[in-house]
Every structure is written in C-alpha cells, then in structure tokens.
C-alpha cells in the first residue's frame, strides 16, 4: 500500500512539472492532460446533444428534418465554443498570456486557413438561409445528387451511382446552384420527339398526351402538355412536357420509360420517325448512273 502511494505521489510530481511557464501562467503536464480529456468529453457531449435535439424535442415539433438538423448543429457549435472557453479557464490557461503568440501565429497561418474559415462561414450561412437542405436534389459544379449531410466545412452529395461527393461549402455561396426541390418535389420534364414529314400533327399530339396519361410516374396535375416546336431539317419537332414528383431523383428512368412507350405506340399507329435526308442538285454537267449488273463485263484477255 505504501509503495502504491509512493508511485502515485511520484506520478503526481511528474504531472505537476511545468511544461510552459511565463510570468503570470504556469502550464503543467496535468493541465494539458486535463485539457485533452475535457475536450474529448466536450466533443462527445456536443454531438449527443445535437442528436438528442434532432430526435427528441424538435421531432415533436412540426419541423422538417433539415431544419431540425440545422438547429441541432448550431446548438452543437455553441456548446463547443462556450465549453472550450470554460475548459481553458478551468485548467488554468490564461488566454491573455498568449495574445502576442496568437497574433504572430495568426499572421503566419492566416493565409493557409482562409479556405477553412470561408467554408465554415459558408456552412453557417447555409444553415441560416437554407438555400440547400438535407434531402434536396442539387446540381453544383457538374455534380448532381442528393444532399445527405451538411457539415461545418463541407456538404456531402450522394449521386445515383451511390458515390459520395464532398463539396466545400464555399461553392454554395460563390457558384450557381440548381436545386430541384427548393420549392417542392414537382419537376417538369421535357422529352423531345421528332416525326417524319407527312405525319398527322394532331394525331401525334393526341398520342403523346395518352402516353403521358398512362404513365404512373407522371402527375395528372399539373397536366402534361405537347408543344409543336418547329419544322426541322429532317422532320417535325415536338416536345412532351410532363410533371413528376416520384422520379425527380431518377429523371433518366422517367425519360426512358416515356421514350419506350412513344416508340412502341408510334410503331403501332404507323407514325414514322425521321432519318437524315439530303437532296443533291447538279447545277451543270451530266451525271451518268449505271446499274452494276448492266455494266459491260471486262473483256477477257486471250493467251
């Protein structure tokens, strides 16, 4: 028992050894160890509090998932800020002692931290203004997918190939963002259709509307519409405009389903699809055309 007490006293003396000592502050190994343990506990507590708010009190309030997440994240950052200040004072670290050192370090690393700080501020702006929310379908910088996480520095976008793309938050402030679900989940799809000249335009319109009406993923309200766009080089150009809320995340599937249905129905009704055609006009001269089988066979050479 005495040996254990001696060992503990020896360890305590080691932990009381000053690692950093100034005129007004004495930072020991025990203070640093306490600081690390308390910070780890603070991080755990802040994350647990965020989850508890999002899945507890805020869940009973009529609030969207993204709004609950944003409020929980802001509370988490506030807990971290206040908790860190309390921990520094608890372990005896006087922040005023490091003003000169912090200023020197800040000048040195400030330029390197510009992107991190800008991304963090952009993350706060996203959470307050909410131009992008959890579950939104967005297109940013050539990346299209669903927002699955909005962090302090970056946002995670999951595309249709189940690939997670990490996008810096600053891109949502500086770049143009396409948000398919900003207002609601209803999105209009445009399917171009071309038919051969000589086709009945009114019949084409009727068939396209019937095809859209029979598709389960096309909304009845707003109703689908057909537009006769122009007389193209090779055929008549139409456009089927259909609304959907179920396949916003998989627009390629809806377009494919409608294209299959259009092709099969038009073949049944005898409506031809155009193919490139070119007329050749000879302004002068004579062009001789002969069939291959009518051409004179080559003369045989006698021995």
Automatic annotation (TrEMBL):
Membrane topology: Multi-pass membrane protein
Domain Mechanosensitive ion channel MscS: 115-181
Location of the protein in the cell: Cell membrane
Transmembrane segments: 27-46, 67-88, 100-128
Molecular-function GO term, any one: mechanosensitive monoatomic ion channel activity
One Gene Ontology CC term in the entry: plasma membrane
Keywords: Cell membrane, Membrane, Transmembrane, Transmembrane helix
Chief location category: membrane
Record-annotated Mechanosensitive ion channel MscS C-terminal domain positions: 190-273
Keyword Transmembrane in record: yes
This protein's record includes keyword Signal: no
Domain Mechanosensitive ion channel transmembrane helices 2/3: 74-114
Pfam families per UniProt: MS_channel_1st, MS_channel_2nd, MS_channel_3rd
Similarity-based family: Belongs to the MscS (TC 1.A.23) family.
Protein name, entry field: Mechanosensitive ion channel
Organism: Pelovirga terrestris
């Amino acid at each position: 028992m005495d040996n254990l007490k001696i060992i503990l006293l020896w360890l305590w003396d080691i932990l009381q050894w000053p690692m950093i000592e100034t005129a007004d502050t004495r930072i020991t190994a025990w203070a640093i160890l306490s600081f690390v343990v308390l910070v780890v506990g603070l991080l755990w507590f802040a994350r647990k509090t965020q989850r508890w708010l999002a899945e507890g009190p805020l869940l009973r309030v009529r609030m969207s998932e993204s709004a609950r997440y944003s409020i929980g994240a802001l509370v988490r950052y506030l807990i971290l800020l206040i908790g860190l200040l309390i921990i520094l004072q608890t372990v005896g670290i006087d922040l005023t002692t490091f003003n000169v050192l912090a200023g020197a370090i800040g000048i040195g690393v400030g330029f390197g931290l510009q992107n991190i700080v800008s991304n963090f501020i952009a993350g706060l702006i996203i959470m307050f203004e909410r131009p992008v929310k959890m579950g939104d379908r967005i297109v940013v910088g050539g990346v299209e997918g669903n927002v699955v996480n909005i962090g302090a520095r970056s946002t995670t976008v999951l595309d249709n190939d189940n690939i997670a793309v990490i996008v810096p938050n600053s891109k949502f402030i500086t770049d143009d963002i396409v948000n398919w679900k900003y207002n609601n989940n209803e999105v209009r799809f445009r399917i171009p259709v071309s038919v051969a000249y000589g086709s009945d335009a009114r019949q084409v319109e009727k068939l396209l509307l019937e095809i859209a009406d029979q598709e389960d993923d096309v909304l009845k309200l707003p109703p689908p519409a057909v537009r006769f766009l122009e007389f193209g080089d090779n055929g008549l150009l139409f456009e089927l405009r259909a609304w959907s809320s179920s396949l916003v995340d998989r627009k390629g599937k809806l377009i494919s389903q409608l294209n299959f249905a259009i092709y099969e129905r038009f073949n049944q009704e005898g409506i031809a699809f155009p193919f490139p055609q070119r007329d050749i006009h000879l302004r002068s001269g004579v062009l001789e055309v002969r069939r291959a089988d009518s051409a004179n066979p080559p003369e045989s050479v006698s021995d």
